[in-house]
Amino acid sequence: MRIVRQFGPNWFTTIMGVGIVAGLTYSSPFPIPFQHQIGLFLFGLLNLIFIVAVLLWMFRWIFHLDEAVNDFRYPEKALFYGAFAMGINVVGNDYFVIGTHFLNRYLATDISKVIWVIGTIAAIFTVIVVPYLLFAEHKVDQRDALATWLIPVVPPIVAADTGTNLIPLWGGPNTQFTVTVVILAMLGVTFFLFIMVSGLVYSRLVYHRRLSGHAAPSLWVEIGPIGMSMGTFSTLPLTTHQILGHYGNALHAFAVILSMVLWGIGIWWISISSMYTLLHLSRRGEGLPFHMGWWSYVFPIGSFTSGTYALNQLVQYPFFTIAGFVQLVVLWTCFTVVFVRTGMGVWKGSLIQWRRIHVQGSIQRAQKPA
User: N or C: which end of the chain has fewer CB within 10 A?
Assistant: First the structure.
């Protein structure tokens, strides 16, 4: 029960990270030794973590209702329900990318579709409820505008991106067209909200003091919706040609141009985020204290890599094959560091107190005179 009380929706960022690394490793267009075995292992680990996380989240709502409700009263906690929604869609997408290759294909596809529907509902809930609370209930200052504000508005684009692969699998043309409309609508919601929130973040970076070392990882969140938008635009022409008819050629050309434009702005954000990270690792910075926000180094980079994969599939050009591989190497470097640090934080009790010795140590530190 001690663990259940402490388990917030921010822990679903681990599911997002493990899931996207698993899918990208398994489906890498650049051949990698043992990529399928590694992808399968991470897929099994993903399912284990996801089941445990969902159970702990449900138990928290049952046994610690006050703690669960309080998540919505604080903006820094409420926004992580976006991670909850995105985590669901990442799991569903891995059943399509990986599960269809070793499970019964129809079973894996049905599982992926069911999870996608659940994730889509969660995404729509998050993108409506959390911004409304920010507008009507939460009290924030302009200096509080961080890229983490994107977390509750990104889930629809994640649902859109993961849903594009499933379009041909939804029965007849009418059903496929309906799913396509839903996907385009969700893409529109996140894409324009992304532009508005990014404007607030840019303004905060210009007019207020530089981000602290604690907040610096949040800049990487900006890369996530860029990558997912690239993935959605690049995949739609390949999965909707049977239902869009003569509009397909125009959509293909539009997707190529827009995805390349988004790839460019993504590289810019990566450059700025990298410079911020290096700044705080230098003598001029404050250091980068570890916390769960470090998963911002994983899923957003994974999202951008996923977008590069999709763009490569659309244009079939070696440049993006190599770019995708380089990004995957960077992703694995970040993932290894963050995964190990998270495991160490759990074991030592700095992230979640799960043993009596952790609680006693926390009490002693609190009682120690200043």
Answer: C
DSSP assignment of 235-283 equals: HHHHHSHHHHTTHHHHHHHHHHHHHHHHHHHHHHHHHHHHHHHHHHHST
Which residue in this structure is represented by tokens 């980079």?
A: 301
Q: Is residue 157 within a helix (H) or strand (E), and if so which, with residue range? A: helix 155-164
Sign of CA dihedral 126, 10, 93, 245: positive
C-beta atoms surrounding 345 within 10 Å = 16
The two three-digit tokens of residue 239, written as one number: 């999965």
CA distance 120 to 179: 11
Do the Cβ atoms of 237 and 252 come closer than 8 Å?
A: yes
Domain boundaries, the chain: 2-352
345 token code pair: 């934080």
Q: What is the largest CA-CA distance in the chain?
A: 74
- pLDDT (tens, 9 = 90+) of the chain, 370 residues, equals 778 888 889 999 999 999 999 999 999 999 999 999 999 999 999 999 999 999 999 999 999 898 899 999 998 899 999 999 999 999 999 999 999 998 999 999 999 999 999 999 999 999 999 999 999 998 888 888 999 999 999 999 999 999 999 999 998 899 999 999 999 999 999 999 999 999 999 999 999 888 999 999 999 999 999 999 999 999 999 999 888 877 778 889 999 999 999 999 999 999 999 999 999 999 888 899 999 999 999 999 999 999 999 999 999 999 999 999 999 999 999 999 999 999 999 888 888 887 766 555 554 554 555 4
- Chain Cα centroid distance, residue 347: 25
214 token code pair: 């604690």
The architecture that CATH gives domain 2-352 is: Alpha/alpha barrel (1.50)
User: How far apart are alpha carbons 32 and 342 in whole angstroms?
Assistant: 26
- pTM of structure: 0.92
Which amino acid is it at 137? E
User: Within its chain, how far is the Cα of 117 from the centroid?
Assistant: 17
